[in-house]
Queue: 2 jobs
Job 1
Amino acid sequence: MTIDTIEELRAGLRECVFTPAERKALERELAEFIRQRNEALAAEEGA
């Protein structure tokens, strides 16, 4: 997971037309990447 992956998903959600099911799946994937990033940042701060 990288910041680029998160930004690519955000751009895709903004600029593309998806079915409702596709959009929900992408939103879940984006939320999971953001959660992982936040956990990694919190671990770095606690180190």
Job 2
Amino acid sequence: MKKTTRKKSSPTKTNYKKQFEDIEKKINKACKKLNSHIKKNEPYEKIEADNNEILMLLGECNYMVREFHNYQKKIK
């Protein structure tokens, strides 16, 4: 029986594009949720939780941008 090894797939521009589109959708959804809670005068805890979610998503986006730049350097 022959063993096959699976190669790690290298990241591609389309892969990064899809990831950025996904994070953009999540950020937009979180912003709408925050806006809705502000309009309804929800308690501070809910608004703070929404804010923290947005900050976490933006941090994730920042990390993805750095990884994309590293990827660009490697392929040049």
